[in-house]
Write a structure and sequence with these properties.
With about 190 residues, the chain is mostly helical. The chain has one domain (about 5-185). The protein has eight helices and no strands.
Length: about 190
Amino acid sequence: MIELPQLLVEALSAIGADIEARMGDLISDFVAIPLSEEDRLSALAGAVATIATTRYLRRRSIFIAALRSWALEISIALAPPARRIVFDDGRGPAEEAQDGLLNGVDAILRAMLDGGSAKHHRLVTELAVMARLLGCYDATSIHLVLTAASRACEDPRWRSGGAVPVSLREGGLPLMRDACLAALAPRGTA
């Protein structure tokens, strides 16, 4: 398991060892699923968009912004450097991985609810699980995932639980002189 920044350590202190262990198991299970990097990021984007629209409908942009901040904090704190993304044309079971991740988060939240945990502790848990998973990637990949999730939340055709594709090629292509900057996904931080 990666070392967490102090901000996250403090936020997770109220959750308890049992819930934190279940979070670790969920993260390990998700990481162990054999997926291409694009499929793994797509599953993460779909899970983020689903959580944002089903639990934080009015505050989904705040949820995604908080997740972006936490994931980047973890990404920066990682040693050794974040994994390099390898383009893979094969498609894996991204939707199944997304469902497994969402079901795992729901099981943890149900256990917390049954244990009388406060709502803000459940929010911290969701943020922590997703931020830990996203934090394994570089800033560009994190921005691609969260931008795709945010766009899905705003798209009236997208339904909660649906797939949210993330294209690594989009973030890695060089910009042309006539590119419309307003239409581009964020490519990292300045």
